[in-house]
Amino acid sequence: MPLAPSGQQYEISSGPHHAVVVEVGGGIREYSVRDRPVLEPYALSAVADGAHGTPLIPWPNRLGDGRYRFEGAEHQLPLTEPAKGNAIHGLLRWRPWEAGDLRGDAVTMSTRLHPRPGYPFCLDVAIRYELSDQGLTVTTTAVNAGDAAAPYGYGHHPYLSPGPGRIDDAVLSFSAGTRLVTDPERQLPTGTETVAGTPYDFSSGRRIGELEIDYPFTGLARDGDGRAWVRLRGNDGATSELWVDETCPYVELFTGDSLAPARRRTGLGVEPMTCPPNAFQSRKDLVRLEPGERMTTRWGTRLT
């Protein structure tokens, strides 16, 4: 059989939980419970559209002009969103990752990001995907394997599934204090807005309807374990849930309106992020990894 566009497929299971992790980008192609999707999948024969399930390293979201300054040096990255003049979603989305420690319910994907023009730093990255009766837990660890400090940000791009139908009739529950306002042309931050009382206030849970969302949120409400939650209840009464730990003060919500027609609004992008868009320029919550230093981030998802 020809190799899938997403490379080798690594299937893991635990009871009714089943997931497929892929070689290309080290992302997750599907996760379901009793055949009901929790994360919206993409087909085995397809390329990951809209960054479905992909880790975003060493920066999430957009970097204006692909240009930034770090430790007194200017750096220029390729513009991977040329229509908007941005570098988007890091450098590892299309690279092959290696699978290790594969067992029935877990797999670790790893890669080394070697120094290159625009990002002359070295990172070792490992992502552990693990299933249990609590759902899927994703643990990402990045280590500065070089001899100089490196700028670092992390994100991931899963889409919560509403089950049958589109997200318009799904009920979204999500509590955040602040929305980052972005300009419509390039989607770079221009300011902030208090969420309460606006169309983006889902703190009490309500239908998404026809609202188009592609914004980062912060000031996340957290439970006693420090987790912030996004919940999407579908027409079948089941709820896809995603949590982020305290290393991720930002979550981007994306209703998928810019995807191909057949894929629009069929899943809700819920993106854990350690920093906001354009952080390499603004330095807002940008992580500085010293040589040998590591950062570990966790998020998870489940069906209730």
TrEMBL record:
GO BP annotations, alphabetical order: galactose catabolic process via UDP-galactose, Leloir pathway; glucose metabolic process
Alphabetized SUPFAM superfamilies for the sequence: Galactose mutarotase-like (SSF74650)
Top-level taxon of the source organism: Bacteria
GO MF annotation: an example: aldose 1-epimerase activity
Protein name: Galactose mutarotase
